């Protein structure tokens, strides 16, 4: 489906290709700044399993846990996956608060979704002393998670386009915790002087973003999107 917001061509996040070695990743990015990785893995087989038709056929009647799209996402709602796709997976209403916006990311049952995840090829890099956990999501255009932070991780776009906004740990962004990313983009972002703007970029299918520990980040799905994150804890 067409996106709810236009794509911003500017990208201020550094990019790296398949020539990036693990030692250079640790030296230049792992503990200091985000990077967009391209060409390190091939997830075409996983992407083929993530079409609307195949996901509905495999998981339609199974319950999924939806989270509120605000910074402190405490509210959870369980619905059948088919109900989410057919009734709730739609463009973001700019007037809705984050606490009233539900969408599917994380909180997956690995017993039921495990056969799908085993086809995913994660990025080859790890942070020493961490283990990885997947978070799978599907969201409508204009939806996203407002600013928050946690441990380091990777996030790959499978379908659609996903815009990211990032601030370092010592630069807390100005936002209301119950405001959606779309509302923040429309109301707050245009008022920011250049020095206060976040690092930002739009990711396309097959691209992976790495974000270090405790970096603030917000996301905005420009299209109906499928994505998977690998959190390092």
UniProtKB/TrEMBL annotation:
The family database entries (SUPFAM superfamilies) matched by this protein are listed as: Clavaminate synthase-like
Q: Which residues form the JmjC domain?
A: 99-233
**InterPro entries from the UniProt entry:** Cupin_8 (IPR041667), JmjC_dom (IPR003347), JMJD6_ArgDemeth/LysHydrox (IPR050910)
The record ties this protein, via Pfam families, to: Cupin_8 (PF13621)
Name-wise, this protein is: JMJD8 protein
PROSITE patterns cross-referenced by the UniProt entry: JMJC
- Mind naming one GO cellular-component term on file for this protein? nucleus
Any one GO MF term held by the record is: cis-regulatory region sequence-specific DNA binding
